[in-house]
Amino acid sequence: MIFASTFLRRALLADAIFSGVSAVGLTFGAGVFASLFNLPEALLRETGLFLIAYAALVGWLASRSSVPKALVILVVVGNAAWTVASIALLFSGAVSPNLAGELMVVAQAIATGVFAELQYVGLRRSGSAAMA
Questions:
Q1: Number of structural domains the chain divides into
Q2: What's the CA gap between 101 and 36, in Å, rounded?
Q3: Domain span at 9
Q4: pTM of the predicted model as reported, rounded to 2 decimal places
Q5: What pLDDT sits at residue 129?
Q6: In a domain, 21, yes or no
């Protein structure tokens, strides 16, 4: 356990809010977004369902004054991997989004990459091990 810096907690909270809003939109609006972005409805809905659990976890981390360092590292690495995987998806040929879909995927990849960077900086600013 480490003492979470205010910067880390705010970065986690911002990620939780962004992910939570995305989760609700993708889960309940997958059909609309699928036609708007020319992306598979199942991909969008399953992403939304995953983000529900992810937002809950990151929100929980954001609410704690001390956090498991390994869990925060997992969030940072997961966000970095999500960023790379999002861009790779566009080049894979597995999906054929329209321009709006490409822009949406790139925008969320950038946002996720920014969260990874902010959380990494926040982790470095966090205190040493907390006494449990």
A1: 1
A2: 7
A3: 2-125
A4: 0.90
A5: 60
A6: yes
